[in-house]
Amino acid sequence: MHERYDIRLTAGQHTGPGDGLCLMEAVALFVGERHGDWPSCVCPVLIEFGRVLNDAMPDHWRTDLLLPLVPVLVGTRDPQSDSCGITSTGLERDRAAALLAWCVNVVEREAGDGDGDGAGLRARGALADAAEALRFGQAQHAARNAAAALAWAVKAAADRELVEAVRAGKSPQAAARAAACICLAIWRRVSVR
């Protein structure tokens, strides 16, 4: 899609396509909706998760990893969903629970033990917030926090890789490349789910 239209995803909300597009704005453009980051054809839980994922992902990977998800997101809104996304349907709560469960696995695998690691601790805190939100039926809030946990877990893994590379005597450039490779591998796994 992006080769054909020369689309590049960027972080944040934009005033129009000429100003840039985030993942959800690209979905709205794809289906011919008015510019915005709340496309009516996408599940509110996936909107919240996608927004955080879009903004947390490094610029140089965002387009290649997230843009292929645009057509996949179309048509995911539950017909029972309210137009504002204020109340959560059973399907939305199930999606938020599935995202949270998956993010728990990623955080446990990638964030390390969290000893002295701010990013790992933040990932676990965001997971706790997501679980609490889900317990109260706030599926969108749960998805937003699950995505934040995922972003912190990626940062924790990159930080850990950077420290290990420096300890192994690699140059700062080689250590940074190793950390970037670990991040890219995690983001690739995330974007194909």
Summarize the SSE layout with pairings:
Layout: H1 2-5, H2 23-31, H3 44-56, H4 59-66, H5 70-73, H6 90-110, H7 118-135, H8 139-167, H9 172-191
Helix pairs in contact: 3-8, 6-7, 6-8, 7-8, 8-9
Specify the helix fraction band. 55-70%
Helix vs. strand class: mainly alpha
Which H/E pattern describes the elements? HHHHHHHHH
| Alpha-carbon distance between the two ends | 19 Å
Gyration radius over CA: 17 Å
Unreliable runs: none
Describe the structure.
- The protein is an all-alpha fold and 193 residues long.
- Helix content is 65%, strand content 0%.
- The chain is built from nine helices and no strands.
- Helix 6 packs parallel to helix 8, helix 7 runs antiparallel to helix 8 and helix 8 runs antiparallel to helix 9.
- The protein starts with a helix and ends with a helix.
- 39% of the residues are buried.
Task: List its salient traits.
single chain, mainly alpha
Summarize the structure.
This protein is an all-alpha fold. Helix content is 65%, strand content 0%. The chain has 9 helices and no strands.
